[in-house]
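user: At home tonight, take the chain set out below, taking as long as you need, and be ready to discuss the fold:
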Amino acid sequence: MSLTTSHNDASLSASAEKQWPAQFGKVTDEFGALRSTCGVYELPQRVKIRLTGSDRVRWLNGMVTNNIRDLAQNFGVYAFLLNPQGHILGDLVAFQRGEGLLVESDRAQLAKILATFDHYIIMDDVEVADISESLASISLTGPKSGEVLAAAGIQLPAMQPLEVADLGWRDTAASVVRGGDDAFPSFEVWLAPEHGASMRNALRNAGATLVGQDALELYRVAMGVPLYGKDIRERDLPQETEQQHALNFSKGCYVGQEIVERIRSRGNVHRKFTGFKIDGAPPAVGTKIQWQGKEVGEITSSAAIPGPAGEQTVALGYLRRELAGPGKEVDIAGTRVTVSELPFRELLKN
């Protein structure tokens, strides 16, 4: 076993300071591109970890909540990393790349993930390397993303969600990853960092709109995608998050599996992650939700989303399961709150 990184402390510090701009123009226009045409952006807060060694598949399969063992080459799965008590230490996407596994997560989780991996690699032939600085990611979101890629010179084959296609672009290697939701197209292009700016400019010239972090956050909330550290915390249990696509119940043992299986066999958890429509301004994170004078939930994210029919305040958070049916009404300090299915599809229409 070995644990390595592809950069020194100085470059890690510099990378950690990278930030994608909050906005490039009007946030409403940038959000509109994500919803209706195509937005292009980078996510410097995302990191990539490579696992090699003959035990890598067996070992990672025993670490995370989804099935790595049966993952076909060039496909990925979303998964949780748990502690033995079944609480969530992090979330990630793991890709089977043939010569190794590639794990993608957020930089805020990197130290914890690497420390957890190091703790559990004992006599296993597994090598872990942070390769974030050697692989750039240019992302596209929107219904015209495929058309933009084609106009920029990348002809996509038919692809399934979380599939990777290794393609060439202007005499350099590039890999394209399809996003996990067929209804809302998105792609990532992986390539050497020195070609990142050229790729981004080519996509802009092909019709993509540069979008900043503010518009991306609106889109995340509208999509109902929970963010680890904000909507998913270590105190939360996997089934409470409603991210069923992160769980596999037939793969065998993994860290925390006993708790996950016990919850499944005994019935549902008492609360669930859900969406809310709110009459008023976006509530602060941590705001409590009431029903008949009792505290029944909390807000974890909120935003005022510009939609076809005007601005709508929505939120994400947790609610007692018996109250979490779409259309149910609860309140926040006297303000009406209506439970909604996720994503907020009417706010994402073209």
Residues 1-17 have pLDDT under 50 and may be disordered. The two ends are 50 Å apart (CA to CA). The CA atoms of residues 300 and 317 lie 5 Å apart.
